[in-house]
Structures are given as structure tokens and as C-alpha cells.
Design a protein that fits this description.
The chain is of the alpha+beta class. It is built from nine helices and nine strands. Helix 6 packs across helix 7, helix 6 crosses helix 9 and helix 8 runs antiparallel to helix 9. The radius of gyration is 20 Å and the shape is globular.
């Protein structure tokens, strides 16, 4: 594999995307039937994570947010002893109605579906936040069963819009860079940890005004200059691996903890730049 970022390379086939969509709709319909008394296979759900941001390179980690009615939040929040865990179990049971032979289990904040063909879904049940007047916001509250149970917040739509806008202004360079870093990670540094949100948040900040040449525009930079700039930016904001590595998610500006990813990210960027 070339160490340089490549333009316009798609890695998930249309057949795979079709299967993802089919399973996504089946999961959505099952949860809507249980919690909304609806047979819709599209309402109350959206792709999130790398797949939702447009930077996924495979189908081994597909994140889906499914919105539940506020009355369910009130019910599980009022329970004693980790109502968040009970909520995940209820969502898991609704999915088992349509996928009884699939490995379905709760894990921390999500319900995981491990399909036998290697495709994996992580379903995040969530509740839309409202302002003081009861108007819906684009932010969500979701359960975390760790440490006795608590609630966390996420704003995936803001992240997706920010990523899409910057990718357009870079003529596709943002998404191509995020995908290329994932490929290098998976091909050469699989034993290390480097999360998708750390990759996307870092590249979103580091890309600055770089873009693929547009309409016959000639590049004035030697090959590898851009990759070197990415490494230089990391060295500038994080000179030492032992320092806390903090990023902010695109659009939502939520804090992203990169401590477990910094070693691998530096290795990948060194590979790209050398």
C-alpha cells in the first residue's frame, strides 16, 4: 500500500451497503414495534459513528442510534439499581424477536449484534433532548451501564454536518484521509488502539486549507508534503505521548479522549510521512 493518501477510493461495495440497509431497517422496525407501536423501518433511527460520518472502510463496526419515547427515559431513570442496564436488556429483547439466532448482547452503552458473516451493529438507544419550551433539540441522552449506571450526551447530527461540509470544501480530501489512516491502522498496526472518532476529529482540525486539486488546478507541492504536514500538526499539539491527548469532535465540540489512541496515531502518521 502506498503511504500517500489516495483520491476517491471506495472500500464498501454496493452489495455490502445494501445488506447494511436491510439489517438496519429490520432492527429499526423491531424497536419501533416494541417502543413506538409502529412498523416503520426508517423513523426514529440514524446511522452514527464512522459509517454515519462517511469515513468507514468496512462493515465490522456499524453504529445506529435509535430514539425512544421520553416516557421510557422517565421510567428507567426512576428505577433503583442501574435502570440503564435494564433499558439495554429491553432493547436487546426487542431485537431478538427478529434475530433470534444472532449473537445479541448488551455491552456498556449499546446492544451489539454480531452476525456470522463478520458484520457487526452497535445499537445505541437514546432520547432526544428538549429545550425549556419542550422543543426538540438535535442532541440526545443515552444510557451508560458502567459505574452503577448514568446518562451521557451526544450530538451526532452536528458532527455529520460538520464533516460533510469540510469534506466538500476539501474536494473529498477529508474523507479520503480519514479512510486512508484507517487502512494503514488495520494493515500495519492492528495490535494498537486508534478509534474512529479520534481519527476524524484529528484530521478535521489538521487539514486546514488543504484540498484535492479542482478543475485542472495544478499542485505546487511535492508528493508527501500533505502527509508531512499532518505529522507536524500532531507533533505541534501533542509533542509527547505521555501528555493527555484531548480533541474536540467536529460540530458538537464534545471532548474526545485520545489517550489510548495517541501511540497508534503517531505510528500511522510517521508511516504516511516517511
Amino acid at each position: 500500500m502506498s503511504s500517500f493518501v489516495r483520491q476517491g477510493s471506495e472500500t464498501i461495495s454496493q452489495n455490502q451497503r445494501g445488506l447494511v440497509a436491510k439489517r438496519y431497517k429490520t432492527i429499526t422496525r423491531a424497536i419501533n414495534s416494541e417502543f413506538w407501536n409502529s412498523i416503520s423501518d426508517t423513523q426514529h433511527s440514524l446511522y452514527v459513528g464512522s459509517y454515519g460520518r462517511g469515513t468507514a472502510i468496512d462493515t465490522s463496526d456499524l453504529d445506529v442510534l435509535v430514539q425512544l419515547p421520553k416516557v421510557e427515559y422517565d421510567r428507567y431513570d426512576s428505577m433503583r439499581g442501574n435502570g440503564q442496564s435494564r433499558l439495554l436488556q429491553a432493547v436487546k429483547n426487542s431485537i431478538l424477536e427478529v434475530y433470534p439466532r444472532t449473537n445479541v448482547h448488551a455491552d456498556g452503552q449499546v446492544v451489539v449484534l454480531d452476525f456470522s458473516d463478520g458484520m457487526k451493529f452497535e445499537v445505541l438507544p437514546a432520547f432526544m433532548k428538549e429545550d425549556w419550551y419542550g422543543n426538540p433539540l438535535n442532541e440526545y441522552t443515552y444510557p451508560d451501564t458502567n459505574m452503577g449506571g448514568n446518562w451521557r450526551s451526544t450530538n451526532p447530527k452536528a458532527e455529520q454536518e460538520a464533516m460533510k461540509k469540510r469534506d466538500a470544501s476539501s474536494n473529498g480530501l477529508l474523507f479520503d484521509t480519514c479512510k486512508h489512516i484507517r487502512r494503514v491502522r488495520d494493515d500495519y498496526y492492528r495490535s494498537y488502539h486508534l478509534s474512529g472518532i479520534v481519527i476524524d476529529s484529528f484530521v478535521y482540525d489538521a487539514i486546514k486549507d488543504w484540498h484535492w486539486c479542482i478543475n485542472g488546478e495544478a499542485s505546487t507541492q511535492p508528493a508527501g508534503t500533505y502527509e508531512g504536514k499532518l505529522l507536524s500538526y500532531l507533533n505541534q499539539i501533542q509533542p509527547y505521548d505521555y501528555m493527555p491527548f484531548r480533541l474536540y469532535a467536529p460540530g458538537s465540540n464534545q471532548l474526545v479522549d485520545g489517550d489510548n489512541s495517541i501511540v497508534c496515531l503517531r505510528k500511522v502518521l510517521n508511516y504516511l510521512a516517511n
